[in-house]
Amino acid sequence: MVEVREILRELGRLRWRVSRPVEGVLIGAYRSMWRGEGIEFADTRPYEPGEPWRRIHRAISARRGQPYVWLGAEERQLTCCIAMDLSASMKVYPEKLRQAAIAGGIMALTAIKAGDRVEWLGFTRKVVFSAPPRRNESFVWGAFQELLHCQPSEPHTLLGPLLNFYAHLHRRRGLLVLLTDGFWQDGEEALRFLRATAQKHLVLTLYIRHPRETMHIPFGRLPYREVETGFSGVAGGNLKPPAFPQASLRQALLPTDANAWEVLARVLGMAPL
Is the dihedral of CA 88, 89, 92, 96 positive or negative? Predict the structure, then answer.
């Protein structure tokens, strides 16, 4: 069980210790470093099938002989929705839920300092917790505590229902932060939902992994038992996040023994994927 008071105390210390870095790195980066539909020109990239043709940059497309899309620097004042995976696989190691809570707290703190609204969601195979978007800190941190105390009965993870819920809830462009270990039962279908969501919204997926789940197996196989389904099998290799070409969809591996602040600063400050 995650100690909520301990997490909040740690975030309180972080708030004062890195106040200026938060303002200088994260608040600027998690908006202005995104490339999308902002009104200020920032960059171009090759056109992907299914994107609106109105965004095609005709001059650059003509020069390079293939279609390119116009990318603007995203504006601020977006609703920041932080969705936390509460399934059984996230609770096998207590450090996973703790690391997810710290990363979510950092993003909430950053959004509040930027003047954005913060919304909390908790999900398993469906949305099991929802708190409306707020700018008021007392409501934001109160909902955060309720989320961490939530005890869903469903152990399995499905990403599709969460993304459908989010799409129906948010008609306007927003920022969705996913805190999950990536062990979804809907597999490839979930990745299609993720790409579709990123066509309209900004999506940051942080894959929370315990060191035992990210170990490299140079040869042979490792027996395992899937905690959510009871399925037994063998695995080998490294569990790495999938790669996406979309600039509005970013992902990073966040091990439980890593510094969440450093990982977030790196992924939000890097060049678009």
Answer: negative
Tens-digit pLDDT profile for residues 134-188: 988 889 999 999 999 999 988 889 999 999 999 999 988 888 999 998 888 888 8
Rounded to whole angstroms, the Cα distance separating 196 from 20 reads 35
DSSP class of residue 22 equals: I
Residue 74, classified by CB atoms within 10 Å of its CB into exposed (0-12), middle (13-18) or buried (19+), is buried
By three-state DSSP, how is residue 222 classified? strand
Q: What pLDDT does 272 receive?
A: 35
Out of 96-100, 240-244, 256-260, least confident range: 240-244
Tokens of residue 52, six digits = 């609106």
Amino acid at 5: R
Q: Among 236, 170, 245, 221, which Cα is nearest to 200's?
A: 170
pLDDT at 9: 79
Q: Which residues contact 97 (CB under 8 A, 6 or more apart)?
A: 2, 86, 90, 91, 148
- The Cα 30–Cα 175 span in angstroms is 9
* Residue 155, pLDDT score: 86
Which pTM does this prediction carry? 0.74
Torsion, CA 211, CA 258, CA 252, CA 166, rounded to 10: 100
Angle at the Cα of 23 from the Cα atoms of 141 and 10, rounded to 5 degrees:
40
Confidence of residue 226 (pLDDT cuts 50, 70, 90): low
Q: State the burial class of residue 197 (Cβ atoms within 10 Å of its Cβ: 0-12, 13-18, 19+).
A: buried
